[in-house]
User: Fold these one by one.
Assistant:
Number 1:
Amino acid sequence: MPSFKMMFKNATDIIESLTDNHKNPLHIGEAMACWTYYSFVSFAIIQVEVGLNTTSDSKLKKSLQDSYEVMKSHQKELSELMRQEGVPLSNTPEDKPESDPHAVPLGTKLTDDEIINTVNINFIAAADMCAASASQSLRTDVAMMFLKFQTDKLSLGLKMKELMQEKGWLKIPPYYQPPGSPDQKG
């Protein structure tokens, strides 16, 4: 079975071949989408840095490091596009210095469960944001960039979900039992 990234690449190749990809200036919605996602990813990076400084779980650290690298690449790609198009960059927070997870006081330290669920919620929000931005973009290059970002987030989210299931950190809503179903108690 082909990988998720290979399927995405094939789909993007087809879409790009169907367009002339004429580069008009960004419309206001595209500029706002870039600015908003740039701001979002800049703050999400800080949350991942805090997670890296807080956890001592090697598998979680690996997932967070993968997330960090993807988010930094998104931030860089957006920064380059925004500068090229004359869109001002939003203010971003300072990077967090590395610290020893064992030196973080327990009252301020996030648990591994809290770290991974917060990062996962950010993946969900980012994937939704990227889908909306891609669908509202008229420029093919901008739409494709947001589709790539969405695919990256979904891919990371799937890997993280496996870790969450393995560690018992996955939050599962109650199962729905329609009225009158044979499994219904009462």
Note: The chain is about 65% helix and 0% strand.
Number 2:
Amino acid sequence: MNIIDEILAHNRAFIENKEYEKYQTTKFPDKRLVVLSCMDTRLEELLPKAMNLRNGDFKHVKSAGAVVSHPFGSIMRSILVAIYELNAEEVVVVGHYDCGMSVINADNMMAKMKARGITEETFNIIKHSGFRLHSWLRGFDHVEDSVKQSVEVIKNHPLLPKEVPVHGLLIDPVTGRLDRVVDGYELATPVK
């Protein structure tokens, strides 16, 4: 049985046994929080537990490395939707130690793409379109600096209300220990 068939078989039993009932909540985050974190598998259950967040407490946005790579991309749009439409009032960027994005190399990734059938012609089309593929695929050297950069992109976004605190944290993916990188309360402009 393939993975999708396994998922669908499980889902039928999940619905039949009404297991969904324990997860029911509203679309509005109870703690009025939106969290941008890395998509690392070690954080799936650890991050909410380490932050004392339950189902329904927060909006969770994920990207590789908790990076906001473009101020008008889908990550930033999701954060703005959480604030304007879903009543979130604070943003927390959570990077983590031992992040795979710190070892991402654009040339190596492109070689893997070629090995999986992406042609040189495709790379040339992207290059001649003006898109900077190497920059887009590049990782980062220091996770703390990356968290600070993502906080800066969010905090300085022209569509973000100035009173919204944007925090930066690092989590240890083994123990769940949280370290503050940016105190968003210090940077937020109080509402008058």
Note: Residues 167 and 182 are 5 Å apart (CA to CA).
Number 3:
Amino acid sequence: MPWFSPKEQPSAPDNRIAASLAHLRALEFQARGFSFLPRQPVQSILSGRHGSRLRGRGLNFEELRHYRPGDDIRSMDWKVTNRTGKPHVRVYTEERERRVHLLVDQRVSMFFGSQRAMKSVVAAEVAALAAWRVIASNDRLGGLIFDDHDCYSIPPRRSRESVMELLSRLAESNAALAAGQTSKASQLNIAMDNLARGLSHDALVIYIGDGFGWDDRSDELLKKMSMHNDVIVINIFDPAEIELPRLDELIVSDGEMQIAVSGNRAQLDERFRDSYNAHVGHMLNILKRYGLPLISVSCAEDPVNQLLKALGARR
């Protein structure tokens, strides 16, 4: 949770604590200079150079016709050719649009931030940037937003209405988070399973969250989704989850109330590092095993610049 000195304490929640719909809508004008299309700059984590090349749009079967000089021999349909005695080829056309599913984590584990904003806010901002970019690329946008109790599914559509539905749900989820609630680790697998059951092939799945609750079942669901679809994981983290600020006493606040945290410096550092490693360590290892791309986004910096850097673009 953001730390403020007494003079800096906000009198009311702001976009650092709960992202408003207006704030997420305004990000449309910053969602430029990067993409999730197959053609990526060489510096991009999604380029073939890094072993994470995207499949791109799928292929639709168009027709079966007689072979013509110049046709690719690999497109021959040998069953029809043998049955008719005449060479036939199968003709495919590339899909004009791609389905992109955003899987956005809005559990209480995301209601934490030490500098710029809460993890839940940064996740909403990254999701908004991705959503606006997807629609600008003429692809279909869908999503599944989950908290500790429910999953909210948005079917893929190529329209601004789909973006607005997703952003409205994100703003509501942001506003509902509060300190003192208990985060449900198993909800991650429930959300992943719900999304996996609705996938077909050649879609792009982008998970945006902190990986809390990732386990062996998550590994299975990840493998299932990635067999015929592309998967990108955007890990939202706060620097204080890895290393506590160098202060003798920490003042922790949720914007309304605050408490002082003190104790053995070495023990606190070790506990925070162990907690972080337990939440995301397994997830990071399995992504490396499957060769899936990971984009880390810190709560302490502008998410736009971080996405641009990760995807090989420049402002």
Note: The radius of gyration is 22 Å.
